Amino acid sequence: MTIYEHSATSLAGAAVDLAQYKGKVLLIVNTASACGFTPQYKGLEALYQQFRDQGVEVLGFPCNQFGAQEKGSEQEIGAFCEKNFGVSFPLFAKVDVNGAHAHPLFKQLKHDAPGLLGTQAIKWNFTKFLVDRNGTVVKRYAPTTTPAALLKDIAALAAA
């Protein structure tokens, strides 16, 4: 199973079939607007600007499961990210990434790239998953891993 078999809802409320990203390198991130890691939006946007012409997409999935750090509406989230960090990469409607109501995409991401000691739970906002052009999850990165630290891995997949 690849990530292309899933769909998600955009910030605007439209259904998005992830199959539209076939053939692209994806960096999928659970995000939040009031987190200590929120400034990573700037680095994520920089990666997107640097690599989008090489078939790389950053996909942001706001999540309110960690310290209630994403309380706003979808409209408020979009406005905040654009105004404060110039975010132009796709953002989706809020999702759960853990628990019984976890979005199926995140269930698969966690299964395919478990965390430390094999745990599948996402520990905090800004956990990142790198997906190759075939829809295969390649690597999982901790929230503390900055977007700049992903440069080498993304460049390698973009060149492949």
Architecture overview:
The protein has 160 residues and is of the alpha+beta class. Helices cover 26% and strands 18% of the residues. The chain has helices spanning 40-51, 74-85, 104-112, 151-159, and strands at residues 7-9, 15-17, 25-31, 56-62, 128-131, 137-141. A hairpin with a 5-residue loop joins strand 1 (7-9) and strand 2 (15-17). The longest helix is centred in the N-terminal third of the chain and has 12 residues, at 40-51.
Mean pLDDT rating: 93
Contiguous runs where pLDDT drops below 50 for at least 5 residues? none
- CATH homologous superfamily grouping: Glutaredoxin
Number of strands: 6
- CATH architecture classification: 3-Layer(aba) Sandwich
Question: What is the makeup of the main sheet?
Answer: 4 strands, mixed
CATH class: Alpha Beta
Order of helices and strands: EEEHEHHEEH
Order of the strands making up the biggest sheet = 4-3-5-6
Helix content: 25-40%
How many domains, in number, for the residues? 1
Shape: globular
Please state the CA-atom Rg, rounded to the nearest Å.
14 Å
- CATH fold topology: Glutaredoxin
Strand content: 15-25%
The assigned structural class equals alpha+beta
Helix segment count?
Answer: 4
Distance between the termini: 21 Å
Helices and strands in order:
Blueprint: E1 7-9, E2 15-17, E3 25-31, H1 40-51, E4 56-62, H2 74-85, H3 104-112, E5 128-131, E6 137-141, H4 151-159
Parallel strand pairs: 3-4
Antiparallel strand pairs: 1-2, 3-5, 5-6
